[in-house]
Structure formats: structure tokens, C-alpha cells
Please model this.
Amino acid sequence: MTDFVHVFRPPASGGGPILLLLHGTGGNEGELVPLADMLLPGAGILSPRGNILERGLPRFFRRLSEGVFDIEDLKLRTAELADFVAESARTHHFAERDVTAIGFSNGANIASALLLLRPETLGGAVLFRAMVPLTPDTLPAMAATPVLISNGNVDSLVSAEETERLAALLRSAGADVTVSWQNSGHELTDRDVVTAQEWLAQHRVR
Ligand code: MLT
Model:
């Protein structure tokens, strides 16, 4: 099995939620831990570092150019990440339905790929600045998996149309998708944090 450099922290209260933290290009396994602590203090954390290096910057899958993905590599890396989460669940005794992905940019894109290709890996997902990662040959059947897409309305990397295409794709696979627009570009804002906190509370991730 492909391993990932990662951080694991069990939930403070035994069997609580696990946040799967997926960083953006150039991030690492520590980067989103402070965000997770703001979103859900005491939640368990599984935070892998992407295994791809693009000019020294970690990512979760290869791209051919900005916004143009290497689909075969994306499929392979998605399978590796799904297997890593499944193995971590066995080792640390948590259930995959208790895993909520928190992904930013490249991390949001591989979280969407997990939903579309290996939906059993996640009980829910918060996608910040997400794009359409790929269109699968066969749509999975998700049992109303809750998904929040929090994107920026002046993001030069992700258009409103692409955001709506992602929402439509996930909905057509059965996901319960909420789209939230922030007054921002590709960077995260305080409103993203508040939006995700409220969404997690509404969806009883606690
Ligand atoms: C990024 O810089 O991470 C991109 O905008 C998203 C991606 O390449 O997956």
C-alpha cells in the first residue's frame, strides 16, 4: 500500500468525527490543522501530505497545466488515498462514514474525486475553492452524502460556471450539495470558516 506522511490525532471524546485534511498545492500535513481546530475543536484528524511534487511543492495528483489535470494520475492517486483512509480506519478503529473531508483547492479536488470514484471513503465533505476534478464513466450512487462547496466569486482559477458544474455533477450522483459564495478570490476568508462551522453544525458533524 502506498503510504503518506501524515498526522493522526484521535478524537478527544473517543468515537467522534474524523476530519480528513487535504491541503492545497505547496501545503503539508500540518497546514490545515489550525483550521480543523477552528471548525471542530476536539475532532479527530487524519492529515496526509500529497505524494506528488511539482517543482518541490506537494500536491495530491499531477496536472498538465493550471486547471488541466492528468486524469490517469488523478484516478491512481485517488485510489491510493482511498486505500490509505481505509487502512487508517482499521488501524485507528474509526468508521469511514465518520470521516468528513476538509479540502482546499488541490485538496478539495481530490476530495471530490474520492466522492465520485470511491464514495464509501467519506461521510461528508467541505470543499473550499473546488473545481470539477473529472467526470467518471459511471456515476456512483451516494446516499445523500452532505457536501459543502465554498468558493470565491472573484476567483481567477475557478469560474462560477465550473462551481455550478461541480455541484450539478455531485447532485446527479445523489449528494446533498450546498453551494456558498464568498466575496473573495482563491484565498480562504473568515466567512469560509464561519460558513463551514455552521454547515458542520447543521449536518450534525460534531
Ligand atoms: C491548485 O493550485 O491547487 C489548483 O488551483 C487546483 C489543482 O491544481 O488541483
